[in-house]
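DEPOSITED CHAIN:
***
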Amino acid sequence: MRSIFNQGSLPPCPAPFNMAAYVLAKGQKTPDKEALLILGPNASKAWTFAALEAAVRGTATGFSDLGLVPGDRVLMRLGNTVDFPLAYLGALAAGLVPIPTSSALTEYETAAIIAETTPKLILRDTCVACPDHASILPLGMLRDFRTLDPAPYHLGDPNRPGYIIYTSGTSGIPRAVVHAHRAIWARQMMFTGWYGLQPKDRVLHAGAFNWTYTLGTGLMDPWTMGASALIPAAGTPSTALAAQISLNKVTIFAAAPGVYRQLLKSSEPFDNHQLRHGLSAGEKLSARLSEAWTALTGTEVFEAYGMSECSTFISSAPGQTRLPETLGRPQPGRHIALLNEHGPVPIGEEGTIAVHRDDPGLMLEYLDAPDATAARFQGDWFVTGDQGVMAEDGQITYLGRNDDMMNAGGFRVSPIEVETALSTLPSINAVAVTDVEVKEDARVIAAFYTGPTALDDQVLHAYVTDKLARYKQPRLFVHLPELPTGANGKILRRKLRDIYEASI
């Protein structure tokens, strides 16, 4: 018996199709229902489904009035505000291709994205780093678009490019991942396979508006179902979320493991709440955290595994039995296998997690990189690069990455990208980067380097500040006489973890 899971398939995406129209369709049946609640320390801001759609379609009109045409790319350099999802959906409604990016990226990193994607327009909040550019639209003008007459949705082939997001590849080069409009259609496999999502739900996502995890799980998916989305205002500490869960009658809570860790430190009681369960993604959730959450709230946390190229596709879910320490099962409708170089491995043997190329949530391509795109496929399978073992019932145990990718607060970070930035410092001869465990359930990025002498940590921190987003910057710097290498001269990054642990 081979490690292949293929339980049914999703009906084809309807055509013609528009992602924004699909997301907001159910809300039209309950126009006065609360679609979005931004939770502030003193007062909360509410948006009804009617107000949300009016702002989105008005924004689409504004883009069209500027002369943009379907297929044009729009780079989003916006902060942690409601402007982010409104601009994102407004661009999609007009048939444009939005490029959401993290506000943590530096001017240097943003310049590289601009050069690669050649956007026709850049949406800019002055609090977010961005190089000067002739096509910048200030935030004030973007907000004025909301009151314009509503534009019709641009309908077309569901397989046409819808949006572009960035991820780090195994080569260390951040890759521009092109997704089709149909990617939103595929996300309904998560509704039963992970969320247990219902129209009556009130979903609180702890992340920022401009994080793709929040954008999908916290906003697009609840709105698609006609449910209410709740987002904490910028600057809200994780420890304050317990009170918000109770006060706002939250039924589903979503966050990265790091937020669960902080929230569990809160002294706030979970009294009179309606919480059914929590959701976790971005990095592996430890059994200790999961058990502590259940002890505090009386609810379970359901975990999901995925990647930017296909969102989540393996998860645990309400009503399903999950073996301890597993990720769960492939979501209903997914076609998943564990492979070696010859194809699917036998049940119980280690293999690389792979997704069938027919999955409607799978990316179209890496932008303008056909060789890089082709390299991710083994026959009909998109190969993730992560290792696992499948049980007879389809449950998958995660064994780690085979590409040395790191996790920093839920973001996947390539060590090569960080090493490239540090290697330009003249005082460093060689550098290798990995993540290390500094305490139970807490990992940080550490840079190990060789050179004539140990450098001041403040100098090293300052050097990477302008070159890397904060979440990519090493928190530890370790000077070594030499870096561990294998017989072929390749640096053994995982050996560095042993070196660090032996030193503490």
User: Anything to note?
Assistant: The two ends are 45 Å apart (CA to CA). The longest strand covers residues 381-390. The CA atoms of residues 316 and 328 lie 4 Å apart.
